[in-house]
Amino acid sequence: YCIVLLAEGIYTTSAVRQSFGEFRSTVCGRCLSTMFIVITFVLVVVWLLVFSLSALPVYFFYNMAYTCHTISVLSETPSSINQLCIDARQYGLLPWSAVPGKACGMTLSNVCKTREFSLIYDHYIAAFAGAGMTVLALLTFTVSTTYNFAVLRYLGRKGIGPRC
User: Fold this and answer.
1) Beta bridge pairs of residue 49
2) pLDDT tens digits, one per residue of 135-149
3) Which among 10, 6, 15, 12 is positioned nearest to 25, based on CA atoms?
4) GO molecular-function annotation terms (predicted)?
């Protein structure tokens, strides 16, 4: 999609300038810009949804890692460790009827010490950050393409419009 957007940017500006020797825009270039603005806007909405939905697992794993850190600090007093729990049902990750829905004490500490926990936590953070960067990139492109389209329309109204 990025390569197609790059080609669209070149087609609607520089290639037209080289063909006509001055600033001209084609009707096809304006239609192409409009189409890509709409497609990119839809992609922004989709990636914003992905970004929002990937925040929940990151929040859950952050709380779980923090609770495990607290358990490791309090490991000298075993009676208080069993009171520290993580309930996945509270975050909407499991249905309320799921048994067991929570992990407490040493069970939670053993889960946190596994390699899979760290790997999954890192992957969710990478997915969250990647979705955020994608949203920013798509928003930046949408703003620049919309500006380019507005300039093409403005110059078209001033009489520097497309040649037939």
Assistant:
1) none
2) 999 998 888 878 877
3) 12
4) structural constituent of myelin sheath
